[in-house]
Design brief:
It is a single chain. The protein is of the alpha+beta class. It has one domain. Helix content is about 20%, strand content about 30%. The protein has a five-stranded antiparallel beta sheet with strand order 2-1-3-4-5, with helices on one face. The radius of gyration is 17 Å and the shape is globular. The N and C termini lie far apart (about 45 Å).
Length: about 100
């Protein structure tokens, strides 16, 4: 029996890539929500993996002082998975002070 490859699966659905994992969107915003920047989106297995990915983004942004006091929002569809504030004690350091789970 012939093994079905990923390319065969891709062609079988008309060139569309189908994912069974939820797609998470990442954005950052000011505490009052007036300014917002879209960071990106990615398919991840669950909320825990999305939180870990969000924490990694915040770590990468640790030297961006202009984002001190901002909040990262992680959502899938219309549901907010969590909010990750930048650490108020070390502004711009990118470490979440707390994670608000939804």
């Amino acid at each position: 029996m012939r093994k079905v490859s990923n390319i065969d699966r891709f062609e079988a659905v008309g060139g569309a890539i189908l994912s069974r994992m939820p797609c998470y969107s990442f954005s950052i915003q000011t505490g009052d929500g007036r300014d917002r920047e879209y960071v990106g989106r990615i398919d991840l297995s669950d909320d825990d993996e999305a939180r870990a990915f969000g924490a990694a983004i915040l770590w990468d942004m640790r030297d961006a002082k202009q984002y001190a006091g901002w909040i990262m929002s992680i959502a899938t569809g219309e549901r907010t998975a969590c909010l990750m504030p930048f650490d108020a004690a070390t502004p711009g350091q990118g470490r979440p002070a707390r994670v608000v789970r939804r």
